[in-house]
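tokens incoming
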């Protein structure tokens, strides 16, 4: 297969350029831990305490001294009862303590016997039916988190477990990167908003604006503040005006469509007139017409109009760029190697991102129509196959698969 046409930028180079431009946004926001899911941590979180705070029982049962239970069948009096949340007194010699899950282990006890292995006698004593080993069923102080430990690092994108962990060290408010402000507009005289014209009344040539919906959702999922400027007609003057408005007080201007070389594509010259264009056209399929530049202080990214191209370039380029703006330490999505359960004998010379799904056997199958206009392929897929330019795929080959679940998070 031939090399890609000169002039098209390899995707990895384009991404590296983009990330090098993404200086983290200034300004830290303090948000309630309850609302921090999906945000990027701005500072390390250091624990001021041990978790668990003290040795505690992981079973409902009896706290004992192993040395006093050399044989099974030993019966000892129960000297105290320790429910979770209460304080324990030192264990009196020659006795056991009734204890419950999460309750502190009394000083002097060195094991918990689960209640299934204990017979409560009528005289109040407890008969231990199984000889305990030292340390059993005790969760040690600090076994999860030690005092002074960095629990989460700056740059971590917080998920549900991370917000729980922050709560576990007592933090009700977390320092996070501020939300990127993104101005969004779609270009195209053919575009109509759903709800404005019913399907049966659509004029010839008109289509509904689908990109606006998924781009907005993708931005919101990443924690951006979206300023949606709607649809901009295919005119130079209107494009200039929309760009100028969008550049005010936004971190990123994101557009879809109008970024190719046709006479009706006004984005590229308009950006060049108002600011500068650093990157244009990437050697990937779908997604060739992709543009990066600046308008005033704002970053500019122009996505292709074809819905699949728009979607794929967003998840592969805009997503890491926005994560980098938020100071995220990890911007690359996870990739798996999975077997192809299909043949792909005629690859493009550009690097391809094929819409695929895992089948019941753990291999990958393709959506039958891989055209960049067929948004159904993305809705159907659960991931993208990253196929190097010019590489045919035969059934059974291992291919690189990017799960969409991660790209959409
Ligand atoms: P363009 O990049 O403007 O040349 O558009 C390429 C193709 O994508 C054309 O068929 C457009 O009609 C279509 N398209 C552009 N913008 C959108 C949009 N917002 N929603 C759906 N299709 C679009
Ligand atoms: Mg257009």
């Amino acid at each position: 297969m031939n090399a890609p046409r000169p002039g098209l930028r390899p995707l990895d180079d384009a991404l590296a350029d983009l990330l090098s431009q993404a200086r983290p946004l200034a300004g830290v926001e303090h948000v309630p831990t309850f609302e921090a899911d999906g945000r990027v941590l701005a500072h390390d979180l250091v624990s001021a305490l041990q978790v668990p705070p003290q040795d505690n029982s992981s079973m409902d049962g009896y706290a004992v001294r192993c040395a006093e239970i050399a044989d099974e069948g030993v019966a000892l009096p129960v000297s105290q009862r320790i429910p979770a949340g209460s304080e324990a007194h030192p264990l009196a010699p020659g006795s056991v303590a009734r204890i419950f899950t999460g309750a502190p282990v009394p000083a002097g006890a060195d094991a918990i016997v689960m209640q299934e292995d204990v017979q409560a006698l009528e005289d109040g004593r407890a008969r231990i039916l199984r000889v305990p080993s030292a340390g059993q069923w005790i969760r040690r102080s600090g076994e999860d988190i030690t005092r002074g430990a960095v629990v989460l690092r700056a740059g971590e994108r917080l998920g549900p477990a991370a917000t729980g962990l922050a709560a576990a060290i007592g933090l009700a408010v977390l320092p996070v990167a501020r939300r990127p402000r993104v101005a969004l507009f779609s270009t195209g005289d053919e575009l109509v908003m759903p709800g404005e014209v019913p399907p049966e009344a659509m004029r010839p040539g008109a289509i509904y604006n689908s990109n606006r919906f998924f781009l907005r959702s993708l931005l919101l999922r990443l924690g951006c503040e979206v300023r949606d400027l709607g649809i901009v007609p295919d005119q130079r003057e209107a494009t200039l005006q929309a760009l100028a408005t969008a550049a005010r007080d936004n971190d990123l201007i994101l557009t879809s469509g109008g970024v190719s070389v046709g006479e009706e594509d006004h984005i590229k010259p308009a950006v060049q007139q108002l600011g500068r264009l650093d990157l244009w056209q990437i050697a990937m399929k779908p997604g060739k017409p992709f543009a990066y530049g600046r308008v005033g202080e704002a970053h500019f990214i122009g996505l292709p109009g074809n819905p699949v191209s728009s979607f794929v370039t967003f998840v592969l380029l805009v997503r890491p760029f926005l994560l980098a703006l938020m100071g995220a330490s990890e911007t690359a999505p996870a990739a798996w190697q999975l077997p192809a359960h299909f043949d792909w004998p005629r690859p493009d010379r550009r690097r391809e991102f094929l819409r695929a799904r895992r089948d019941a056997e753990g291999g990958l199958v393709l959506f039958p129509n891989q055209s960049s206009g067929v948004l159904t392929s993305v809705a159907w897929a659960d991931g993208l196959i990253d196929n190097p330019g010019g590489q045919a795929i035969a059934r059974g080959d291992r291919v690189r698969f990017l799960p969409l679940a991660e790209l959409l998070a």
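note: The pocket of adenosine monophosphate (ligand 1) is lined by residues 186, 188, 190-191, 207, 209-212, 256-260, 304-307 (CB under 6 Å).
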